[in-house]
Design a protein that fits this description.
The chain has about 250 residues and is α/β, with parallel strands linked by helices. It is about 40% helix and about 15% strand.
Length: about 250
């Protein structure tokens, strides 16, 4: 049964070339949403943009217009570049002493600055319309820490939570909700290619739901937040991790 309040709306999903972003874009299409997808990595039906570049974000806005739903998925523990648009994920844990300033700043930019620039560009248009749904992407790494993806990624995703709460306060009077989704272990093709998908049976059994997450598990939550059913949810960070972590 379709969710109310989605059909006929317009959405922009960033980081939509693969994985969770692609799944969200597909779910919203099935719900009758006019979809605009963007990624630094070229993909069918996707606008190529480097969202760490304010000029690229401005050009993207000129192509998209005013979306009703803005879904900021772009990011990851390794920052893409124009030359290497889909970098391999690290095969081992990233320790503090392994990171240099360039890695720190590039991952902060890929995960936090992108969301800031995109929100700054599109929020005024949503304010003028007095309607909007913004969904940012945090991570379980920001909720409980992580010895896998490194402090730079966890710090960036922690920043997303702060960005989300503040924008919820600022944009709420204009009819705009702002929330974050914090995925746990989601088995995407990139995760599997990095060897992270080979989760041990003991780890899976430790999850209350006894299975790894799927991209469509995340897409369903995003669709709900964009729908009429999510209209009174704002400033929240929703943990979608099979019960692996739930904070106070």
């Amino acid at each position: 049964m379709p969710l109310e309040g989605l059909k006929g709306r317009k959405a922009l999903v960033t980081g939509a070339a693969s994985g969770i972003g692609a799944s969200i874009a597909e779910r919203l299409r099935r719900e009758g949403v006019e979809m605009f997808a963007t990624d630094i990595h070229p993909a069918p039906d996707s606008l190529v943009a480097d969202l760490t570049d304010a000029d690229d974000v401005e050009k993207l806005c000129a192509k998209v217009g005013t979306p009703d739903f803005l879904i900021n998925v772009a990011g990851g523990p390794v920052a893409p570049t124009r030359e290497q648009t889909l970098p391999e994920l690290p095969s081992k844990s990233l320790l503090l002493e392994d990171l240099d300033e360039n890695q720190w700043s590039s991952v902060i930019a890929a995960n936090l600055t992108t969301a800031f620039l995109v929100c700054r560009e599109f929020a005024p248009r949503m304010k003028a319309r007095r309607f909007g749904r913004i969904v940012n992407f945090a991570s379980i790494a920001a909720r409980r820490g992580s010895d896998r993806v490194g402090v730079h990624y966890a710090a960036a995703k922690g920043g997303i939570i702060g960005l989300t709460k503040t924008l919820a306060l600022e944009l709420g009077p204009h009819g705009i909700t702002v929330n974050a989704v914090a995925p746990g272990f989601i088995k995407t093709p990139r995760i599997e290619a990095a060897g992270w998908g080979d989760a041990t049976a003991a780890f899976i059994e430790s999850l209350p739901l006894r299975r790894a997450g799927r991209p469509d598990d995340i897409a369903g939550v995003v669709a709900m937040l964009c729908s009429s059913a999510g209209g009174y949810v704002s400033g929240a960070t929703i943990d979608v991790n099979g019960g692996w972590y739930f904070g106070p």
